[in-house]
Amino acid sequence: MSDAPRTLVIKTTAGLDRPEATNQAFTVAAAAVASGAEVSLWLTGESAWFALPDRAADLVLEHAAPLPDLLASVLEAGTVTLCTQCAARRGITEDDVLPGVRVAGSALFVEEILADGAQALVY
């Protein structure tokens, strides 16, 4: 068994339209970061909006950690990526996103999920 750190790549397509799925993706990402895993969180589809300042606060879910706190945890110790096409479809530019959020496309996503030791989850 390898001692190389595992990478968890999480892709979330849900937004305010599916608050439980959204919160679950962010919760798993934050928990993985807290446990020392290398984490890459991809914001796609309706979750693209959460790359913008103050938008995570729009999601309020009873009995769940606040989305802004979860996002801050992942930004602090992991990687958060906004899908290029998803951003373009919503008129979001690199100048609009939170500090630390990168904008990238499917080629990088595929590279990450095919890397040795990577585990991908989609919400």
SSE layout:
Elements: E1 7-12, H1 19-34, E2 38-43, H2 67-77, E3 79-83, H3 84-89, E4 101-104, H4 106-114, E5 118-122
Parallel strand pairs: 1-2, 1-5, 2-3, 3-4
Helix pairs in contact: 1-2
Provide a brief overview of the structure.
The chain is an alpha/beta fold and 123 residues long. Helices cover 34% and strands 21% of the residues. It has a 5-stranded parallel sheet with strand order 4-3-2-1-5, with helices on both faces.
Polypeptide structure, described:
It is a single chain. By secondary structure, this protein is of the alpha/beta class. Helix content is 34%, strand content 21%. It is built from four helices and five strands; from the N terminus they run βαβαβαβαβ. α1 (19-34) packs parallel to α2. The longest helix has 16 residues, at 19-34. It is globular, with a radius of gyration of 14 Å. 37% of the residues are buried. It comes from Antribacter soli.
- Give the full name of the CATH homologous superfamily: DsrEFH-like
Number of strands: 5
How many separate structural domains?
1
Taken from the alpha-carbon principal axes, the silhouette is: globular
Structural class: alpha/beta
The arrangement of helices and strands along the chain is: EHEHEHEHE
Helix content: 25-40%
**Strand arrangement, largest sheet?**
4-3-2-1-5
CATH topology: Hypothetical Protein Ychn, Chain: A
Percent range for β-strand residues: 15-25%
In whole angstroms, the N-to-C terminal distance is: 28 Å
Arithmetic mean pLDDT: 96
**In the CATH hierarchy, what is the architecture at level 2?**
3-Layer(aba) Sandwich
At the first level of CATH, what is the class? Alpha Beta
